[in-house]
Amino acid sequence: FDWAEGSTWYRSDHPEYGYPNQFMNLCREFADKDCGSILLESEGCDDFYDKSLGNKGGAYRLSWYKPSEMTKEYWDANLETDLDIFRPLHQMTPLTPQYVNASTEKFTSIAAGLRDVFAIKSDGVYGNEIDGAPLEAWQKLTSNITNAQKVVIGGQTAMALTTNNEVKRSTLSSQKHAHENNGWSGALNGSWSTTGGWSNRANPPAVEGTITVKDIDANNAMLWCVDNANNVYYRNFSATRPWVKVNGGQLTTIAVDENSGWGFSPDGKIKRFSLQSKGDWRTVENPYNLTKLSANCDEVWGVNANNEVYRINSSGYGEWQKVADGYKDVSVGTDFVWLLSTDGLPYKCNLISFADNSVFTNEIQTGLSEQTTNTNGVRAYPIPFTDNLKIQIISDTEDNEATIYIQKIDGRTVYQGQTKIQIGVTEMNIGDRLSNCTSGIYFLTVNKKSGKEVIKLVKQ
């Protein structure tokens, strides 16, 4: 499917269809379950009025069913599945220094949010505006914490994790500079105090019992944490609801955006899970030995022990892209990324527009080997291809004949043919028949007596 992002006629609050929208659920009701999921390319991420196929923008993929529900009919199935977002990485403005006096503004960690950015020094927390203007705004918070080891910002709420593992909160006003938000009140646990100032509280009873918080992060909706047993929890900012434990995985640190959670597992691997279903835990490759992560704006940034900075799409697909050298901490805020150099000085860059086509396309182009094998008995190579594409149909039975279709991602058929197949391997070269096709994603479908098989193709 190829549609303009923000198209209102695709959306519906009708209870029969629900999330994510009426049209997609109608497709799901009548879909062939063998296809597994629906992929939608979103035009308009770079130019709303450019409706041509394949222009720069994002892509979204929705699984039709949970694996446990595949045997059920549509009306009986639990359709709570994850919507994967494959937006491209943003373009970046150059990294620029954001400090007034290099001798005084040396920080140990930094946190960027919606409107504000905070940084920690030995004598407390300092605030500035997210866009770094005016630079003179690097000032100590009016109501301060001298034992903060980490600060995070979720929407218009700031949280601080202290050195004795207490988490405290402040509501941030849009009418004041960051350092002037002196309405700090309460602690993480139990109900928030309204007496003003940073208050101390014991850990509260949660659904699963008392927890000791080891790391925190926040998105615009929830506060997230890991405890000293590496369990993952979440709760609302106002603490009117108890901690809820997330099953399926364990983390030693946590970084969240609006759709995904990231962190390091106890064995040191990078793990990514869905905040929608609180599941879909999977390992993301860590070829550059990253040790710190920050997530926002559909991107995840990381730093390693060599002070190198890398980023990747928050879906976990695609490849890590190197950004810079010489930085010890990073925090991705709304439209801005802030970093600390190795000598503790703050730098920032702006995230603007999008740098490439969707990460889903990039992942296919770079992530597949020269020869892609389908375990059901169809092979196509090379991938990506230009004017030469070979197809091998592997069969251990006398299927006699197969029908072959090649379709664009929008469903249009660009090739249809039949071939006689034999026991063993039947090979055919059809690249010359696709020479007039444009670059992009295609799907090869082979129908034979023993079943249907589908392979993704990419033409350069």
Characteristics of this structure?
460 residues, mainly beta, 5-stranded antiparallel sheet, 5-stranded mixed sheet, 2 helices, 38 strands, 4% helix, elongated
Give the averaged pLDDT, no decimals: 76
- How many angstroms separate the termini? 21 Å
Q: How many DSSP helices?
A: 2
Q: Estimate the helix proportion, in percent.
A: under 10%
Backbone structural class? mainly beta
Short overview:
The chain is mainly β and 460 residues long. The chain has helices spanning 22-29, 359-367, and strands at residues 2-4, 37-43, 58-63, 83-85, 91-92, 96-97, 109-112, 116-121, 124-129, 139-140, 148-154, 157-162, 167-171, 185-187, 197-198, 213-218, 223-227, 232-235, 244-246, 255-256, 260-264, 270-274, 282-284, 290-296, 299-304, 308-313, 321-325, 327-332, 336-341, 346-352, 372-374, 378-381, 390-395, 400-408, 413-421, 424-429, 440-448, 451-459.
Layout of helices and strands:
Elements: E1 2-4, H1 22-29, E2 37-43, E3 58-63, E4 83-85, E5 91-92, E6 96-97, E7 109-112, E8 116-121, E9 124-129, E10 139-140, E11 148-154, E12 157-162, E13 167-171, E14 185-187, E15 197-198, E16 213-218, E17 223-227, E18 232-235, E19 244-246, E20 255-256, E21 260-264, E22 270-274, E23 282-284, E24 290-296, E25 299-304, E26 308-313, E27 321-325, E28 327-332, E29 336-341, E30 346-352, H2 359-367, E31 372-374, E32 378-381, E33 390-395, E34 400-408, E35 413-421, E36 424-429, E37 440-448, E38 451-459
Parallel strand pairs: 1-2, 14-15
Antiparallel strand pairs: 2-3, 3-4, 5-30, 6-30, 7-8, 8-9, 9-10, 11-12, 12-13, 13-14, 16-17, 17-18, 18-19, 20-21, 21-22, 22-23, 24-25, 25-26, 26-27, 28-29, 29-30, 31-32, 32-33, 33-36, 34-35, 34-37, 37-38
